[in-house]
Structures
1.
Amino acid sequence: LFEGPVDFLKGVVAMSGLPPADRVELCFAGRSNVGKSSLINALTDRKSLARTSNTPGRTQEINFFTLGTSHYMVDLPGYGYAKAPLGVVKKWQDLLKSYLSGRPNLRRAFVLIDGRHGVKAVDEEIFSLLDKSAVTFQCVITKADKVKTTAQEAMLDQVRERLSRHPAAFPELVLTSSNDGTGIADLRAIIANLA
Ligand code: GDP
């Protein structure tokens, strides 16, 4: 699906470190532990391409990956991790704001939502930041295997209801599970079609 190699390119800690904006770019955001690393690994069919947000040192970096020859895939640090010192959080938020508002080739942000928890207040903060930055975003529900079929519609409705207040939100949700592969092919197709 993605022609050419999928590789870690670099971790960026300041705007000056961004690679040239010469490819279609997409990014992944989500609360710590939402399943972001697992999803990136499932998408790219690589066991440990993305490391968990608990990996020391990589937490505050914006991690760039090449996705074939035409896309950059960007892994934003997990947010909502209560233990981070305030100064660190502030520095990270400034970098995130600069990145989101100043990246001309960024086509879409995928915001991951844990299917067991739905949309939380910290997710809404990211939604609002994306609105302000005029970055189209799409919610990807993770850990679908943990949500009973009977509870799925109510969960999806909660997410849709929250999204309806956000002008930058792309209305269509993607339901995924890195454990059983649900929705992974759909998400790949969505990414491949970003132009
Ligand atoms: P990150 O912090 O967002 O990168 O999250 P991880 O990918 O490290 O996953 C956090 C935890 O959720 C780990 O214990 C994973 O095994 C688990 N997890 C991730 N994806 C899934 C999934 O699709 N289904 C289930 N049941 N657990 C998952």
2.
Amino acid sequence: MRAALFGLLLVPVLACQSPKAAPQAAPNLPQAPLATAATPAWALAHPEYHAHADCIFCRIVADQSPSRKVYEDERVLAFWDIAPRAKYHLLVIPKQHVRSLKELEELPAETRAALLTACVKVAREFGLEEGGFRVIVNSGKDANQSVFHLHFHVVGGEKLPEDAVRVKDKSDSGS
Ligand code: AMP
């Protein structure tokens, strides 16, 4: 009787302790270094998924850093910029890691198309189509790129500064 009772108590304890099945990468596909039990199945099986553990946007893709997501599909993710510089300031990124626009050609054509399509989708989602919105891609150090995972800023919802390009007047250069 006591043995039966002990068995009854032990079964749920063992069930709680049994390790979750580790996610299995599909054969011949790159292993995703950030993969956890929470990594979605598509990411494990997706040939485009190469998460970089030291990249904040890869960590967001892998759900290992928080973000306020606004749109997601198989290829792209959109979320709020952590320090919005307009009423609406969203970032659209490819789930596949590429450093900047310079590496655009590393992305499959479908992902390149999905990026621009997602920019328009999120702008529409937030009602920015009528008033207008701006899409910005900073690429490299002269452009002050600070996160080296390609991203498109989608900003709007208010009148934006007229000139987001010029840093200083050419006459300031002394030439
Ligand atoms: P850029 O200067 O063009 O490389 O833009 C990088 C953007 O990423 C900046 O606007 C940052 O505010 C934003 N950013 C950095 N870290 C995060 C994060 N964890 N979540 C959301 N946005 C971020």
